[in-house]
Design brief:
Blueprint lengths: L2 H17 L6 H11 L8 H5 L1 H11 L1 H10 L4 H30 L5 H21 L13 H12 L8 H11 L4 H30 L5 H31 L3 H19 L4
């Protein structure tokens, strides 16, 4: 096996876990950094599959909540409501993703211009929303009204554009719809679970249907990336929640603006 490619996969896994739940676009970072270090990811399969490591990390951290919901479905109305809320919020990504997935992976994933502008514009919009967000009316993610949850689900679809950030779209969608910072971040975590698991299953099925064999080297790279994504996500999720509750999201907005502007500059100078 190629040790260098395994090392690249580990680095990308760490980056994935650190950025998946921050509103900075983990996919954009993986595509940019992967290109910088010379990692080849045809069809974005590695990028999507290692995201499951980050999602499993959140499922582990919220395992008691998940257990309570699953075991409470037959008898507890609040458990059934929570499950229905997530299901309905998840549906828009399924419907739109079914038709747009191929275009996103074959066209948008290959465009650094798209990623750069998405980072830059998203950062500006985040700063504006941070300043002018409506007064919160929802302080518990589990109590999000169904219509607000579905609206956040539609906001999530915008994140199919690399550089937008799935967590950023859902968190700021939540803030715009009256969730407070912590509730918006937690709802984003909960919605990520079915969304990213479905993306993983879809990609695995597409790979199987294509008849293209996956080498043992590529399987090893995905495994390494998966493990490191899980570990780094476990480390970052709780501190992120505490940080945004106290400070807000403005630092991430400025980070996006700087990275997006730097990427545009590098592209214009022919450096990347």
């Amino acid at each position: 096996m190629d040790f260098i490619d395994l090392l690249r996969a580990a680095l990308l896994g760490i980056l994935q876990g650190l950025t998946e739940f921050l509103p900075v676009s983990s996919t954009g970072h993986l595509l940019i950094f992967g290109r910088l270090i010379g990692y080849d990811d045809p069809g974005g399969v590695f990028t999507v599959m290692i995201q499951l490591g980050s999602i499993l990390a959140v499922m582990w951290l919220y395992r008691q909540r998940i257990f309570d919901v699953v075991t409470g479905l037959p008898t507890k109305p609040e458990a059934r409501r929570f499950a229905l809320m997530l299901f309905l919020a998840f549906l828009p990504a399924v419907l739109i993703g079914f038709f747009a997935a191929d275009y996103v992976k074959t066209t948008l994933y290959a465009s650094l211009h798209v990623i750069a502008w998405a980072l830059l514009i998203g950062g500006v919009l985040m700063l504006a929303l941070e300043r002018f967000a409506p007064k919160p009316v929802v302080t518990d993610a589990a109590q999000t009204p169904i219509w607000r949850a579905v609206a956040v689900g539609f906001m999530q679809c915008i994140a199919m554009i690399p550089g937008v950030s799935r967590s950023g779209a859902t968190i700021y969608g939540g803030l715009l719809l009256g969730l407070d910072r912590r509730a918006a971040a937690e709802f984003s975590f909960f919605l990520a679970m079915p969304t990213m698991v479905a993306a993983f299953i879809y990609d695995a099925h597409q790979l199987y249907q294509s008849g293209i064999g996956v080498s043992s080297q590529r399987i090893a790279e995905i495994g390494v990336g998966f493990v490191f994504a899980f570990i780094s996500a476990v480390i970052v999720v709780k501190p992120f929640l505490e940080y945004v509750t106290r400070v807000g999201f403005a630092p991430f907005a400025w980070y996006r603006i700087v990275i997006g502007a730097a990427l545009l500059g590098a592209i214009s100078l022919g450096l990347i």
